[in-house]
Amino acid sequence: MRLYPIEAGNFKLDGGAMFGVVPKSLWSRTNPADSNNMIDIAARCLLIENGDRLTLVDTGMGNKQSDKFYGYYYPWGDFTLDNSLKKLGFHRDDITDVFMTHLHFDHCGGSVQWNKDKTGYEPAFKNATFWSNERHWKWATQPNRREKASFLEENILPMQDSGQLKFVANPITDFSEAKELDFGIFFADGHTEKQMIPHIEYEGKTIVFMADLLPTAGHLPIPFVMGYDTRPLLTLPEKEKFLTAAADHNYYLFLEHDAHNQIITVKHTEKGIRLDSVFTFNELFN
Q: What is the DSSP annotation of 174-231?
């Protein structure tokens, strides 16, 4: 097995929305904002090569939306999913599996593309199986008012219409080996219903793809919860339980949305779980 970070693009989000009720005077110490109160955000995906299987975890925003849509998110930098794959010698047609932690547009938008010749939406990975879970799929396709703007039909329904969609079974316990895939999954419900957090055993380390359970290193304090979370009072115990395990077992936390920190470890302190070390992927594995 080999792992590769895939930078699918950088953008910005409102710092207040990213940190909920936490005062700016606190969160800006780790996540400084610009004059519009926007903070740097990454769309960092993970590619898992294991024999003949090539699995991509999340796909970023994609590039099919209007300029007006992207204008709300202030794209910056030169990263794209296709260029990141190309640098590693891969093409999107090589991808055999696309695993979506959840179906918010910044995590799955790149899974579907607009085909101008067919004038329609289609899967962007024609040879891949797309993985979600049944409860989250229902949540996304019958969205509540709070999340409706994050669940875009054009990002979601073409995967099912193509016949390429499969569901991971919900686990009975927090950590469960997903037999269909090359990693285990932790399910979390505070951000959205049945968000899936992959954990991968790799070169003697446990790598956890944090998605929106821990967006950035600045979100480590337990009360630092996004305003986007649908059940913030559920996020609190989910974070505490997970981060305690991460500190106890020295998990390596792969940060999808932290534009400036790829991988971190955490430790117990008198103030709770806090940052221990920061790594780039290459520092750890090359």
A: SEEE-TTSSSEEEEE-SSSTTEEEEEEEETTEEEEE-TTTS-SGGG-STT---TT-S-
